[in-house]
């Protein structure tokens, strides 16, 4: 952890809303599900650990909109996230918010 108590967060452009702010790492397949047989069988370790760098508002929004199993089954790629109408609405809202 850094001195401010945060995990190593980089600063840059959110891959969803494009705001320039601090970024968090979002696992496209949530870590909680990595040990489940379905995901171990169908995805390599590298695929299970893939993720995107997104802002905290987008990250929170994804987890408020969908549970972890839904995210893993239906939104395991950036393109799938960007194609969903509910996520698009959240991204549009988040993109209008003030950055760090």
Mean pLDDT: 88
User: What is the total domain count?
Assistant: 1
Query: Any idea what the radius of gyration is?
Result: 14 Å
Total strand count, please?
4
Strand order of the largest sheet: 1-2
Low-confidence segments, given as residue ranges, are 1-7
Range of strand content: 5-15%
What is the succession of H and E elements? EEEHHEHHHH
**Oligomeric state of the chains in view:** single chain
Largest sheet: 2 strands, antiparallel
Walkthrough of the structure:
- The protein is of the alpha+beta class and 100 residues long.
- It has helices spanning 37-42, 45-48, 56-65, 68-74, 78-83, 85-95, and strands at residues 11-13, 20-22, 24-27, 51-54.
- Helix 3 (56-65) runs antiparallel to helix 6.
- The chain is globular.
- The relative contact order is 0.20.
